[in-house]
Design goal:
This protein is an alpha+beta fold. It folds into two domains: 216 residues, no CATH class; 246 residues, no CATH class. 42% of the residues lie in helices and 15% in strands. The chain contains eleven helices and 13 strands. Strands 9-8-7-10-11 form a five-stranded mixed beta sheet. Strands 1-6-5-2 form a four-stranded antiparallel beta sheet. A hairpin with a 3-residue loop joins strand 7 and strand 8. Helix 7 packs across helix 10 and helix 8 packs across helix 10. It is globular. The C terminus is likely disordered. The structure holds zinc ion.
Length: 483
């Protein structure tokens, strides 16, 4: 029987030596080379068949179509690599496989999108990668649990080419084998060697000006108790631009006494700096030394900003998941807001960061609450959390974003805008849970927040929380099935 599991990515910062950097770069280049090669032969075949069809050739007479799967592309690559990449001995074969597999995935996405069987935005034919594309490669299928980590838990294995002809590699295998990490890997190593987690893939990339290894692990989870409990502490969280988050109650060591969590101040300063660098970069001559220098600085700053954001998100989600049995959050769509406010770059940036962070926040909250037997409830994005009076339920027709205080015309209550929204979100969450409890009475409910998947993909944008949406505050006319 297949045990339920959950995919999780653990990022490990790497601190490679210059010789290791050289090798990592060549691996990334090799992955890119194999990617482009795969895309090229697929494109050639695709274009040829298109041309033949246009010329009126019968479907049965067309050139044979190429199988785009990694299964058939990889042997094809192996048969030509001596010819097209005579240097392949100096690169691990896994790097090439990474490129071919990625290309096969991109081709599959295009194929499915073209056929109309793929959800979401339409996907075009894969584009070729160039030197400016993200540098990364993925290693898959290493089953031995202890394989990745050194004895001292401070180093990650660097896979070396089996039969390198380059004397720089051949001579220094021992020095190249282990990449130092700036973090202790003891916990990760323990989880993996004990079999609690299994490594599915390791992606090594140059991200935000630094090298990192991202371990994609399969975490076996014990399904939480299926009983829906209505008791236990519950919290509503309003996410925003002014404050990172506002909760219905203050949380020690996390928020101020008004239950606000400030947006990290240094983030603002960094965003200012980023906007400035962007402007400077746009004035530089492309390809010039100055351009390259500023680009590198910008890359590092981007990395720092995303690490700062990650740190704050983790702190927020860990505390919320640990302190409350139920966390109610709002589904967000801030893309529209960002478009509206292009004038103020820093605000727009902050919003886009929040937007990008929202799915991450929800993902983190989901697995962290699940770990503790708690849960997340997601309220529909059409729920008018900021316009509703949390005291008497009166709805305001309009509330400008600049108005920071909610004043009710009916009952006269005066509240901080975000606190009011957080309370509404909490109350809506309670209502949804009550609904859920009465709806599932009589049959075995699934866990509310478990994300149990059978495919190894990124967390879907439409997660489990969406099941609430069908039963909740859709605009009135869509409520009829329940009425
Ligand atoms: Zn009121």
């Amino acid at each position: 029987m297949d045990q339920p599991y959950r995919m999780r990515a653990v990022v490990v910062p790497l601190d490679p030596t210059p010789a290791q950097v050289q090798l990592l770069r060549s691996y990334c280049g090799a992955a890119r080379f194999a990617y482009n090669w795969t895309v090229a032969i697929a494109k050639e075949n695709w274009d040829k068949r298109k041309e033949e069809r246009r010329a009126g050739i019968d479907e049965a007479q067309l050139s044979k179509s190429l199988d785009w799967s990694a299964w058939s592309m990889t042997p094809l690559w192996n048969s030509v690599k001596d010819e097209v990449a005579p240097w392949h001995h100096d690169v691990t074969k896994h790097a090439f496989r990474s490129g071919v597999t990625d290309a096969a995935t991109a081709l599959k996405n295009f194929h499915e999108s073209n056929k109309g069987v793929r959800k979401g935005q339409s996907v075009g034919f894969p584009k070729f990668k160039n030197r400016r594309s993200k540098q990364s490669f993925t290693l898959i299928e290493f089953k031995q649990p202890g394989y990745w980590f050194s004895e001292d838990s401070r180093h990650v294995r660097l896979i070396l080419p089996l039969s390198a002809t380059d004397p720089r590699i051949a001579r220094r295998r021992e020095q190249l084998r282990w990449i130092h990490s700036t973090e202790s890997l003891r916990r990760l190593k323990k989880k993996i060697t004990s079999g609690e987690w299994t490594v599915q893939a390791v992606t090594i990339s140059f991200t935000g000006g630094h090298w990192q290894a991202s371990f994609l692990v399969r975490q076996y989870v014990v399904p939480a108790s299926s009983a829906i409990r209505m008791r236990g502490p519950i919290v509503g969280v309003d996410l925003g631009v002014k404050h990172l988050a506002t909760m219905t109650v203050p949380v020690k060591d996390l928020s101020d006494e008004h239950a606000h969590i400030e947006n990290p101040r240094h983030l603002d300063a960094e965003l200012d700096r980023l906007a400035k660098l962007d402007r400077r970069l746009s004035r530089c001559q492309k390809g010039s030394k100055n351009h390259a220098k500023i680009r590198k600085r910008r890359q590092r700053l981007h990395g720092r900003i995303s690490r700062t954001r990650d740190l704050h998100l983790h702190r927020l989600t860990t505390t919320l998941a640990g302190s409350f049995e139920t966390v109610v959050i709002e589904d967000l769509n801030l893309v529209g807001m960002v478009k509206k406010s292009k004038k103020n770059t820093v605000t727009a940036l902050r919003r886009s960061i929040l937007d990008a962070g929202f799915y991450e926040l929800r993902r983190q909250l989901t697995y962290k609450t699940e770990d503790r037997g708690h849960r997340v409830v997601v309220v529909n994005r059409f729920y008018p959390s900021s316009k509703l009076c949390s005291h008497c339920g009166e709805t305001k027709a309009k509330l400008a974003i600049s108005v920071r205080v909610f004043e009710c015309n009916k009952c006269g209550i005066t509240l901080d805008r975000d606190v009011n929204a957080a309370r509404n979100i909490r109350d809506e969450g309670i209502r949804l849970l009550a609904n859920e409890a009465s709806n599932v009475a009589g049959h075995q409910p699934e866990t509310l927040n478990a994300v149990l998947r059978d495919r190894e993909t990124e967390p879907p944008r439409r997660g489990r929380g969406d099941r609430y949406q069908s039963r909740t505050t859709q605009p009135k006319r869509e409520l009829s099935p329940l009425a």
